[in-house]
Protein 1
Amino acid sequence: MELEPSAFSSHPGEKGFMKFIHDLPVAVFRETQESRIVYCNKALAELFGFASCAELMEYSMSRFYRNEEEREVLLQAVIKSGLVMEAPVSLRRRDGRPIWCRLTARARLDERGMLEYVDGVLRDVTGEIERRGNRPTLENTANVLSDFIALLNAEGDIEDINKAGSDLLGFSAVDLVGRNIADFVVPRFRDLFSTFLSIVSKTGREEGLLTIMDRNGEEKHLEFNAFVDDRPGLFGHIHLVARDVTDRIRYHKEQLSKEKFVGVLEMAGGVAHKLNQPLMIMRNSVSEMLSGMSSKDPNYEKVLKIHQQVERISEIAKKIGNIKKYEPMDYVAGIKIVDIDKTS
């Protein structure tokens, strides 16, 4: 059953607005991160070759991308920047016929800042592309997005890179073309890069985390997807599509450090609590022994030392229970331990 505009609102004015959207001559849609179509107008259904919106909504949006990696790149760009405008996308109709469109999309986030929906508009530019006799290239597609995108040959040499990628590395695109991407991988991982190229060539794709250095030697963490191009003229070339997740990783490290500190506090409180009871018994017993001994007793000095050390342990237990910050200190064999004197 086709969803009519009235299904989305009971307010007369809103019904009229929804009908206006439904009858627009441009394709409008709302989809989830999982590619489920929540709403579309009849122009979108017609664009993909369907008789009704209800029929179209039985399919996922990713079904109409000629390359599903392209949808993932676009989705991540929308999530990261909040808005993508006039991005060229290669799609296909229900019958498999290819079409070219321009996508404008906005991310809708929930109160926690998580992606709820993507609202988008598609404009069919197939005729324009066919008249020009060419299709959008890596350069003009990638520069719409805020991701690092590069085209590599089988040896890892850069043959093309988008502006965001060249800016991230701190060089112009002209200076980067011809250089091997391994030159920018941090030294501790550089020897593994040939293994990465081998895996991509054999399996056709790979994903993971890549740590690179920019022109100033600053480390950047990229979450990447790599896949082999099998089109004539580009066979064996590798598309490297990545997002800069440096801030996210830094945030996770800070969170991990906070969690460690919370763990230290909880452990310190538990240890201090457990020590206090036996310490109280020891202190009372030793004090009672001293009060009943003469200073001339041959064991007096020994018992006095025991009393002093019990008091010292009591002070340490108090400091452990009063830890307010995480301050490490060097120990033997390169091990770090909590500096109790500086943390309480």
Protein 2
Amino acid sequence: MTEQHVLVIYCGGTIGMTPSADGFVPARNFADAVQQHLPADQTLPQYTLLELDELIDSANIRCDHWLQLAGILQQNWHDYDGFVILHGTDTMAYSASMLSFLLTQQDKPVVFTGAQIPLSQPGSDGLNNLINSLHVAAYSALPEVVVCFNHRILRGNGCTKVSSTQLDAFQSPNGRELGRVHSGGTELNRERNTTLNAQTRTGLPLQCQLPTLRPEAVAIVRFYPGIQGSVIEMMAANAQAVVLQTYGLGNFPDADSKVVQALQRLQQQDIVVVNTSQCLNGGVQQSTYASGAVLNPLGVVDGQDMTLEAAFTKLHYLLATESRTDNIREKMQQDLRGELTR
């Protein structure tokens, strides 16, 4: 039996950072750092490490970085059995979500991981996360983009970062985790994977789309008491789509006529507006309350239980691949890559 071979793509992020006078910064030669910290008796799947020429602090992630990563995967897809992407945690869920939409007909695991504490520092979680992710990439046969962190395996477009300090930093707020990595191996929740497996295991080769992504195409507007209609229009000034973060089940300050008028003007400009909840769990059910139902005639799409990261990146993807806004609105309500759970 041929040994599984994994490509590890090191983007930067906390896992490989070292201290400087200005705080932790991305550091080069990560392969050497891994070898220094690996126990002598540690057994790992065979892997090759590719280090980006320009390392990225994930707070600086841009649309072109997503296309760069997708391009690397596309170029190497047939030469490896799985892939690990070492990425900063701050925007990991955004990148995992976007890659899930860019990679169609995916038949191999793409595993995002990183660390809350740099590998160079005492108490780092980086080595365990890397080892676990290598095993998931090599042996799980998950045909999707996932995040492997603190032994959890989470759907890439269904998870979000929930802690800035704890090692258990990611959760899937509206879906069960896909599995766990433990000393005995990788244990998957097969029931949770059934739908996505059926969608992706078509026998067709990987299709990787590298469309033009406009950074300004999607804006995010988080509601707060007293928000002004002018703020909404200012945020949407150069956008083709807007993600709203409203209250509870998708409720909206419908008593403020200027806020309502701002959304009416967005509708007149054919800007796609998607409603997501500020709540971590539960998602949007836009028609439950009158203050949410008022959004229906304004053409606002019910974002259901998508995470903010999934809604944001899905809009970017659809704006770049669809020419008609009615098609975009329709597909925002369809489950394309497991991003919707109901």
Protein 3
Amino acid sequence: MAEKVTLIEVESTDQKMGKWEKLAVLAINECPKIKKEREKKILFDRFGIGKKAKTLHAIGQDYSVTRERIRQIVNNAVKKIKKNCKSDEAQKAIEKIDAYVQKSGGYVSSEQLFAKFNCDETKEQNAIKFIASLSENLVAVKESSTMKQGWSLSKVKIAKIKSIAKEAASILKTEKKTMRAKDISAAIKEDSVLTESVMYGAKALMKTDDGKWGLTTWPHVNPKSIKDKSVYILRRHTKPIHYAELTNRISDISTKKVTQQSVHNELIKNEEFVLVGRGIYALSEWGYAPGVVEEVIVQVLEEAGEPLHKNIIIERVLEKRIVKTSTVVLNLQKPRFKRVDKAVYTLN
């Protein structure tokens, strides 16, 4: 049989508990209708308060009862606390959560809730979800194939939330570009605050660093491969970068550390990237020219169609490659070029 959890035991570990965990404990222990220690223990186990949350099946095994029986005990206990919560601190916390959901248009994902109330640790996240479940005004939005787990005001139907998420994704698919939330909400004729809150909870949508929204399937919004992440980082960096530094930045946004060799290989074999200096790469779309400096000078003179002053040649080469000025000057001494006037060169 599972051990008992008494109020004394909880208070003895008070210093180790977070703010929301303490509130959850108070809500349970100060409810006069929750008298049985077994009932308290089941709530602690199910919601993961001060520990890892357990499944209904696992708790049922602890007490030799069915998962359905555990579900009934949990639901009944939550109802009791909703109607008989004697903790003023817990009541104030519930009101704060209600106010935040109201301000957000009537829906928030659990991720938004965690971010708003600084719940970084799992135990605090478990606790704030328990506190939210005690609200008379909120309905839990279960995680589905399209939506993350969240909370809505009872007057905001879950079907409405899913419809907004679906329409927002449809608009982005049609436009084929990232868009601001206010433009998406205008296109689907929905409240802008609620629309953006729903988009945070939609699995198909993601907010970019510039504040716009896109589809998670778009590599420039949600890069997954080393190649896509390289493009993503270079666009954010807005200038060429050494592959060693690029490797570090890719590792920062990846679940696994990547090697310099794997990054370098992608940069070499894909046309999206161009070598513009020793180990330094740029995006081809920026107009940088591949090849050795000599070839770049040839390209500059061919594009000009006339002799150019040395300073102009240097300036135009540096627009295409990252090299030292002296390297350009030395290359102008090669047989493919000839000086036709003081510091003026053309193709030989």
